[in-house]
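Catalogue entry: protein

Sequence with per-residue tokens
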Amino acid sequence: MIRIVLDKPTCNCGIFGFYGSDDASLNIYYGLHALQHRGQEASGIISSCLGKKPIFNIHKGFGLVSEVFANKKIFRDKLSGDYGIGHNRYSTTGASDSIKNIQPFAVNYRLGNLAIAHNGNLTNASQLRTELIEAGSIFQTSSDTEILLHLIAKSKLNDQVEQVKEALNIVQGAFSFLIMMDGMIIGARDRHGFRPLCLGKLNDSYIITSETCALDIISAEYIRDIEPGEMVVIDKSVIETGKVKSYQIFDQKETPKHCIFEYIYFSRPDSKIFGTSVDKLRRKLGKVLARNHPVRDKDGEKVIVISVPDSSNTAAIGYQGELEKNGINSKLEIGLIRSHYIGRTFILPGQSEREIGVKIKFNTVKGVLEGKTVVLIDDSIVRGTTSRQLVNLIKEANPKEIHIRISSPPITHPCFYGMDFPSSDELIANKFNSNIEEIRQYLGVNSLAYLTNDELLEAMIDHQREEFCTACFTGNYPVPVNTNFVKVAND
């Protein structure tokens, strides 16, 4: 049995916290369902009851949310409580098969219970881990997230909110944290706001989560984004007064550096992140792509625009609409059908993944493609293996021509802020020294075009250009990375 995965960048997790209702864990379960795209390896929930002896109940395991929480008795017998936090995991490095690395993490320390769930990556994790071990800390996981547990537990301060604030001033890099203590949950973002985090409300209950689609599934109201460098605290007094407690973690505000890949690929199109609809910006990416890199049929016939489902669907809509607006006869079609039912693994007796893997995921609608000039819209190319196999699959439908348009620039640099890329020399852009013509020849298409970095930023309406991290395209890292940086398993 092997895993069939698309050749795409991978985000490391989704987080969901709920406070103020006796069905907290069930609401977290639904929220994690909506965030399944942010992590499919493992899932976990911790809950606790207000007004009783503070005990943290926990259930976690490998697999999809529906697999980990398949038995409904879990919510009644194991995860009772009025508040809790949950986590979907994708491990970028480290022991993905170790249950110890499944979040949320929980400990008991001198001021009570403490649990943490994390989206992002700490760039000074290796240094801090070494310092903590030398000072006597004993680590149970290989995750950078555990570092914050130790920093909070070692604090000599006696106010828990101040302990958290002190610890967050020590860690560096990208983080959206959910922290649970006896009687409260805390949400916090790093000073640059790399990863999304928002605040919602359901009746008198409060939610902190990665994306607004997780609010929609339980019919909760979106209140606002948690700001870069902000920490919000939800406890009984917030339920009583309706006033969320907000703290500035850092003395100095920084320019936001939102991960631009959240808009390109990671987040769901029905979410609102960084204050803007993902669908709106993906359509804009497609429009900018069409204006700068149009495709015409050599015989003046209709151009067929198709997407690599599902993440490129919205960009394809924008692309085709802009072609029409500019007088290019075109039609948006469903040319690739994606299977959603193969699960995370698939048995391939007698055949290699290289031969059959893409056909397990995709099939063509031959009548749509045959004899046509086809434009395949995709959000990114990483190694190029999936793209090349998709081209070969489309060729079986006998199109006139195949053109590829990518709604992002070539990926040339590693990410240290929470995305998982292969090593730099495995990236197709680096293998061909960013020579687009050589990449085109490798893929076997009639033409290939990417958005440039300037074109990408042009599409980021509602935001200033400097508010985004584009390090994976440019190598310009907004937060310095220790030259001895080692990615501890980020979850």
User: Anything to note?
Assistant: Residues 345-351, 483-491 have pLDDT under 50 and may be disordered. The CA atoms of residues 148 and 403 lie 47 Å apart.
